[in-house]
Amino acid sequence: MVTDKAGYEHLILFLTEHLSLFEQPTGELTAKTIGEALEETIAEQIINLCMQHTKLEINHRSMIIREVDSIVYDMQEVLSRVLDTKATIKQFELITEISILIKNLFDTAIAELFD
Q: Keywords, A to Z (predicted)?
């Protein structure tokens, strides 16, 4: 649905281009670890996605969940060394931006389903 598209490759590239933000973190810390921030922000966006697209059938939702699991796994692999550290505000903002981009990838894929 999205993990085999160019947009997903660009998303991973976007994350890797910003890895320095995770290698030498500075700034105020949030209450969440990077792993928690990643899982929660992506989950929030996918819940919003499913609520917005009421025409999705159960098989589409299942496909989305499988792909989201794969995406979270990929993100965790890239950030594996820092998942248990507290996220800085800038890191949390980047993670939030990435989760919004993930939702946008799914919005586009869903629009193509119903065209």
A: Isomerase
